[in-house]
Amino acid sequence: MECKISWMGKDGMAFAAETGSGHIVNMDGAPEGGGRNLAPRPMEMVLLGTGGCTAYDVVMIAKKSRQDIRGCTVQLKAERAPEDPKVFTKIHFHFTVTGHDLNPATIERAINLSHDKYCSASIMLAKTAELTHSFEIVEG
């Protein structure tokens, strides 16, 4: 896996990131840090990548468990250390899983497997942050 990050110019703190798979994502800093708030912050990208990683796992595991899953969202709320390096210290994941006749134990197992075994991003972040999760099931 690889990526290339390019600074977009001297009048700001925006960067373009090109992934090894050929996708481009922009990032920017906060105005108080010289950015212009044109794109997500790099640490927001870490958080959203982690959410995408674990949501992917939960959907895949639920499908393999023959659950009639029709939707999955995960909302992450994170806290960071006050001093540099401002690593994540706490992250809470709240999953809302939608489907027909979903088994709560199976969904909880999928979330636990993601956090304990499959989601590389959350497993890395668990080295500095306390990770917690909750979930709700919505019939639909």
From TrEMBL:
Top-level taxon of the source organism: Bacteria
- According to the UniProt entry, where is the signal peptide? none
What Pfam families does this protein map onto?
Answer: OsmC
Fetch the PANTHER family from UniProt: PROTEIN YHFA
Q: Which NCBIfam families match?
A: PRK10738.1
Tell me the protein's name.
OsmC family protein
